[in-house]
Amino acid sequence: MIIIGFTVIFFILIALVLFIIYMIFFDRHQKHHAILRNYPMFGRIRYLLEKLGPEMRQYWFNSDKEGKPFSRDDYEHMVKSSKYLNDVIGFGSKRDFDEEGFFVKNSMFPKLTEETKFDRAIKVKTKRYNLLKDPLFSQRVEKLEDKEPSAFLLDDADTVVIGPDTKNPFRLKGLIGMSAMSYGSLGKNAITALSKGLAQAKGSWMNTGEGGLSPYHLAGGVDIIMQIGPAMFGVRDSVGELDWDELKRKSEIPEIKAFEIKLAQGAKTRGGHIDAKKVNPEIAEIRSVVPYKSIDSPNRFHQFEDVESLCDFIGKIRDHTGIPVGIKMVIGGNDSVEELARYMKKSGMGPDFITLDGGEGGTGASYQEMTDSVGLPIKSALPILVSTLEKYGIRDRVKIIASGKLFTADRIAIALAMGADLVNIARGFMISIGCIQTMKCHSNACPVGVATTDPELQKALVIDEKKYHVTNFLVTTREGLFRISAAAGLDSPIHFRPEHICHKDDKGIVTPFEDILKEVKGLIRASE
Fold first, then answer.
1. 91 exposed, middle or buried (CB, 10 Å; 0-12, 13-18, 19+)?
2. Taking the model in full, what pTM does it have?
3. Which of 286, 310, 362, 468 could form a disulfide with 127 if both were Cys (CB 3.0 to 4.6 A apart)?
């Protein structure tokens, strides 16, 4: 046995030496990597460390507040809310209070819990993990248990109504929904878990994204806003034009409550893209395209080219379907909404809602120059949109849905105080179903089965577990929203106004948001 053991080790060492010699010879004569030609062994080590760099930074070297797009603290907040139906922290905040930022004004006499106005009769049946042990050298010991918390939905009197003058208005008792995420950019298990989890939480909605309506969006029976992009996926005919008969058929599906025309997205004010390997036959059928061929939708609709023709297009869809129609847009400057608001005032036409996407929003695939430098972030864009609509006296006609990293109750409260009626969340829901921020959404190689259509990779995502994570994340966030409302002296988050927030600069000077809003309105007047 000893002789055999030494013989095996000898041959393994010989094979290893031969392999190293071969790799050195190969690296010195290859023409693609300069460093490998001069330093074969050290070059290999360099590329290995470079490959491991993102994971090393995420888990070891970045502080809890440094990671991008979401810090470790942000990520853990979403995960804990999803798994444990609990977002309690200990000891104190990790926020850098010397940095500038917005704050919610607390009231000297906050509302008591029993004074807050939400529908106490509606409960949610869910499951959460109870953490029993968290040892250092082995997995956590957790127990899955049934829970039935309040859904924390709005009181009936506070219901938000989109398109009150349409044949079939969209009524909402929850202020938080899922932002546009297409089947194709996300896999069927991910979309199904999201649909079922949102439905369990009640009072919410999901946006299909521009990839069309899939059976997985319908799996849970949740309310749906169907997005229509320039490529008309899901409602297009054989030549890519809008199929009005198919649009009518879609509008008659009970779950579809509204249509959204996608003019732009915060992370890419351009057309959408999906790699060929993601376009399987099922996705191709849903979108009416050719399987396994990359899809690049146009960066704008050819059906309209100005505000007047856009509003005509909206009106035709609304009249044809009888349900509300909105637009998704990105604001680039103080004058971005001027022409739209002016025409809406003059004509009485226009969208029933505006989904305003901030430049900090996410995407399955885009380009660095688009994600970094095109489109204003949500906290700059919201005051511009609200002020412009108010200037023309049409603010009450339009509901505003804000999106852009609004994944915690305090961020949502600030957006509501800035003028939003509702908010969308995308990546927060992705994290709730298992996303670990590997930044591979565009590659179809998502290791946790979220942003991929690969059948093998999707097996990692267990629908019957992750659907509860979606429910828990949403319910916990809603509860936090009522909690922060009470701290501000409000009985419901629908009452957040500009006077309830302020801005502190890096010198510690506090500016009421009403003053900032006055300055924004002055700039808008000057931009005419």
1. exposed
2. 0.90
3. 468
